[in-house]
Amino acid sequence: MKNKRVYWPIIVIIFMAWHGSHAEELHSVQAYNALKIGENLPSFRGISDTGKEIGPTTPEGAFFIHFINDELPATCLDEECGQEAQKIVSQGGHLLGGSDGKYAHAFGIEVLSTSPWKLTVSLMVVADHEGIILAIYPQASLSMIEHVLIDLQL
Predict the structure, then answer these.
(1) Alpha-carbon distances of 81 from 4, 9, 55, rounded to whole Å
(2) Residues 135, 151: contact at Cβ < 8 Å?
(3) Strands, E, within 23-153: which ranges?
(4) pLDDT digit string (tens) for 56-114?
(5) What is the domain-level CATH number for residue 35?
(6) Is the dihedral of CA 94, 98, 100, 103 positive or negative?
(7) What's residue 95's pLDDT?
(8) What residue numbers bound the domain in which 134 lies?
């Protein structure tokens, strides 16, 4: 029993070191295919599973995080994309996401299959309230949302 107690602090330290090192790996790139920091977002339009429209009629916000990932519904807005969206909404922004091929193509992502949706990459693109790209994160995940907000000081 005494040996098990010795291992817990070691496990906690290893986890914290692993978690911290992965948070530091989050880096925005200057460009991804046709997307470039400082330029406008691509134009797109979609309807979420609950009937919310995303695209030109998305509610106003301080910033927008577009997340294209094949684990999401075809299109989603804010909490429809996952609980992580609460952090974004609480900061005055919106999370727009999806796995739809049209949405993926607008952001330069290739579709490997349509049933189920399988994309070549997961991509997170952050834009300001005017649709100007602030950051591009290839291979992103929803678990990175908090780190993205910190990285961009949002």
Answers:
(1) 40, 35, 15
(2) yes
(3) 31-32, 35-36, 46-47, 53-54, 63-68, 75-77, 94-98, 111-114, 117-119, 123-128, 133-138
(4) 656 788 999 999 998 998 889 999 998 989 999 999 999 999 888 888 888 999 888 88
(5) 3.40.30
(6) positive
(7) 93
(8) 27-151
Does any domain span residue 39? Answer: yes
Considering the domain boundaries, does residue 11 fall inside one? no
Residue 140 and residue 136: Cα distance in Å, rounded? 9
How open is the CA angle 119-59-45, to the nearest 5 degrees? 40
Judge whether 116 lies within some domain: yes
Evaluate whether residue 18 is within a structural domain.
no
**Number of domains observed in the structure of the chain:** 1
